[in-house]
Amino acid sequence: MKSIIKDFIPPIILQILRKLQNSQQKFLNYQDALKLCTTNAYEEEELIEVIFKKTKRFSENLKSEIIPISETAAYSLLSAINPIIESKTNQINVLDFGGACGAHYFHLRSLIDKDLKLNWVVVETPTMVRYAKELETDELLFFDNFTDAINKLGKVDLLHTSGTLQCVDNPQKYLVEILNCNARWLLFNRLGLNILDRDVVTIHSSKLSCNGIGELPNGYTDRWIKYLFNFPSENKFLNTLQEKYSLVAKFNDQSGMYAVDGEEIVSYGLLCRQKTSP
Description:
The protein is an alpha/beta fold and 278 residues long. Helix content is 32%, strand content 23%. It has ten helices and twelve strands.
């Protein structure tokens, strides 16, 4: 579904790099574009192995270092405040869609009081889940589908997703799945949307070293990899979202997009609250 692009690179630098690095070619559908991507795209073994090793190192470094909080990480922390306040059991249940190997969990866990139990379930691709299983704890679990994740959590206090919706083959389908999880709160971090009333399928290129948090592990040769971005229509996204959720806050996060010729791509974050039944 996605790889984590370095959260700690300033958004303006990310925009410049993406303008230089990414193909502007647009495609009629996801499958046509996939033919020109790196083999297996988001499921490429080496890519996932690098993200896994980076996340493992990151989780270990958090035990002894103070890690800078990026704007994206700050929004993740902010999104947890209301579920924590509302909790009557001193625990919250978080479903993280596209959370890779759990970097968001490890960072928030280091910032939130240990007396609060942070039940965090990541929904990812089968290959990512296979690697991430090694990082599971009594709080952190990984599944490759929403059904098993929800069955494990019971109720979802917060559904967290960061830069993922524009990385799937059918953003509208996954948005409906997200809404059907019936989470009390939703955080869409690092959204990438098209102002024009159409979805835009294009190819994103990045260095292997830019995926995951931190430096490229020893033993790997840096190289360019290509995978898909599928920017959904902003109008269609918001109309579907607001059938069940109210928009509570909008964050200025530019890191989920890059310029596409002839299109008006925007990026921001949204914190949303489930509407109560009339």
